[in-house]
Write a sequence for this structure.
């Protein structure tokens, strides 16, 4: 027996696999006393897969964040079932995830500042670091080599090697406050841009920064100030061209043309926001939830029971659709034909589906109590919905609106599929 | 030792893996004579991965078709390198590939009517059937359960179980010819639609058909006739809404609104085609190559050294960009900022890059002789280009236009990455 990986029915090209999990297995095996044969086995397997792992593609995998227990449930969207759990991730309230470019690893950003690299194939923690005091999200560089975490505390961005989670760049969000003192701003709305760059907003400094890490030893940060008061979240349009930051401190949206950043930030949708009446807002909507169908964007109104329709050529509002509550996530099915909406408390046990051809409500569903998130499979035939207070995730067929599977999960919040690895600005 | 898969650091949920490849390995091992231990090992491993396989994600894998030798080179876009070869696929001239929803398996449609299911993890042929006389492409249903092959000979579509390649539905493209006789049309431009449906065009019958396989035992076929003369290829717009078929027998494009198919086919771009002068056309462009950036589509002109710019709101031509030859593939980088173009003979050793902000040529490259295809990594930082007559594939950094890797391949043609599994209508 040779110490190589053999590919049946193919010519072989040498490759290195993960040796780590095998080591554990080898030690366990040696206890049986068959040392000689096991040494031979070890030689044969060391460069290959650990035998305890199922051989499988990663394109249909994902994870559900269980905020109460600090663990993840790993799921398979073909089987529509969980296949493993991973514990020990710390405080996962409001945690988010991004993926390595091969779809094997998830990077989880926790509210305790933890950054955890989870292996979806071995269902284990590959690496975990406490990188900050309070992280609300992150991004993977376009080339997959860097992971950036956006921190509230200490305010700034930290950039890590995607393989090792070694810190490679620290980018404090230092600014001069009104009283002349130096402070660090909370960072929100981080996204990757082409060419090892990250864009993010500084809540306390009314700014958008772009960090270029082409040379990780000498990052270059471009700073755009006075973009509007208190950017609280942001997104990149699906075509990759515009960065849009919602403003907490005033109405309107700050829009930056990423193809022509020198033109500066433009204000659009002047009436988008809390308004002069300062309506009670039970939960600020997530901007990542904006949906684009054709040339129109569907936005969660703030404080109102409405979804706004915006023409993306003129950036003007062209319609409003009455919905069942204050919208939180407004997300398009990948083909754009439907937009699914969940709501803030007290209407958070419903989900509504907008037909984008008629801009009317096609369906109202009640998946369970406290719907926190929803995620479409990449081609849109299923949507997975987390109902936190019913401890379950419900999977719907988006064509028939029939529930096709229900999974138990402890206080599930975010749901993230590996297909996110393929998307820009996410 | 227990007969289960162990996930280090996690709670276990039972799963079945591939037992097939393990069997071979077990037989080989039994020859060493350590029967008792090996039986225990077999019990422990049977439900898990074969030890000869590297454990890895599939999100960054792909394949290069080597048309001359009937084999595939499997590639890794993170390493920018080949990792295995798979032979025995028959006639691969003009072969195309689609992927299973987990990204593990490629389905290859060959000109000899062969449909081959290739396992990218074991680098072997999982299954191969001769399903027709001459296939030019296929599609996987949105839910991943069905594979459809579009055939020239005998004209029609055959639908297979994606797991087993067992034939589940045969849909002959039978039509009544001008002389009243029954004939079978060649089928082109097949794509998946939401809900286990496939759409395709009948070259000889001037028709577009939609097959609904919700019930595979009783497929329903909707037939739309008189769509224009000789549809030769087709595509679905990236937003999933429109099916567009190019016409060989006359100018113009047949456009079907998939959200409102009852409205029938509309003719757009009346001047798109070979024109009244009947220009010499060295190679009909591939419609799959149409690029959309923002609200504009970039189309290969037929017979002319131009790329056409079309406004997708009005479906009118709004510009023409002079290029170095008759364009074949016109493909947008995933963020839409660049459109890459290759050409028919005699200009087929060049590739040009259009900047979609200015609609001018940003770069002219000479990757090698006889450039047949190009494929972007899903987030667009790399493009892989096959140069058939130089027996190589060249990988470019799309930001700098620098070649970053060169791979040897025998007469490479199509390049297909697993990220296609995530796309609708592809």
């Amino acid at each position: 027996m040779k110490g190589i990986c053999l590919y049946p029915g193919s010519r072989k090209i040498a490759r290195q696999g993960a040796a780590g999990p095998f080591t554990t297995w080898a030690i366990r095996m040696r206890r049986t006393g068959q040392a000689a044969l096991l040494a031979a086995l070890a030689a044969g397997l060391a460069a290959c897969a650990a035998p305890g792992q199922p051989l499988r593609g990663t394109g249909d995998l994902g994870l559900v964040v269980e905020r109460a227990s600090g663990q993840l449930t790993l799921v398979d969207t073909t089987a529509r079932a969980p296949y493993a759990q991973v514990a020990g991730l710390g405080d996962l309230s409001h945690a988010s995830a991004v993926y390595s470019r091969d779809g094997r690893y998830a990077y989880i950003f926790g509210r305790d500042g933890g950054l955890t690299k989870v292996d979806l194939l071995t269902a284990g923690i590959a690496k975990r670091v406490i990188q900050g005091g309070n992280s609300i999200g992150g991004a993977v560089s376009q080339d997959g080599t860097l992971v950036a975490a956006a921190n509230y505390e200490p305010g700034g961005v930290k950039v890590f090697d995607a393989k090792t989670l070694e810190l490679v760049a620290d980018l404090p969000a230092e600014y001069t406050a009104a009283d002349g003192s130096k402070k660090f701003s909370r960072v929100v709305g981080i996204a990757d841009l082409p060419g090892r760059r990250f864009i993010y907003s500084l809540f306390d400094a009314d700014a958008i920064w772009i960090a270029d890490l082409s040379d990780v030893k000498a990052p270059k940060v471009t700073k755009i100030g006075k973009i509007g008061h208190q950017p609280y979240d942001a997104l990149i349009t699906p075509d990759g061209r515009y960065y849009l930051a919602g403003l907490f401190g005033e109405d309107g949206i700050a829009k930056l043309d990423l193809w022509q950043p020198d033109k500066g930030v433009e204000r659009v949708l002047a009436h988008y926001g809390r308004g002069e009446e300062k309506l009670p807002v039970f939960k600020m909507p997530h901007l990542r939830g904006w949906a684009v169908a054709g040339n129109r964007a569907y936005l969660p109104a703030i404080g109102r029971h409405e979804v706004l329709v915006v023409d993306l050529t003129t950036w003007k509002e062209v319609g409003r659709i009455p919905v069942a509550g204050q919208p939180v996530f407004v997300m398009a099915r990948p083909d754009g034909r439907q937009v699914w909406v969940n709501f803030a408390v007290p209407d958070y046990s419903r989900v509504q589906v907008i037909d984008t051809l008629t801009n009317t409500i096609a369906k109202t569903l009640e998946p369970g109590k406290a719907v926190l998130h929803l995620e479409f499979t990449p081609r849109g035939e299923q949507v997975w919905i987390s109902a936190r207070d019913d401890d379950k995730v419900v999977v719907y067929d988006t064509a028939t609106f029939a529930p096709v599977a229900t999974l138990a999960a402890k206080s599930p919040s975010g749901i993230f599929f590996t297909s996110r690895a393929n998307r820009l600005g996410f």
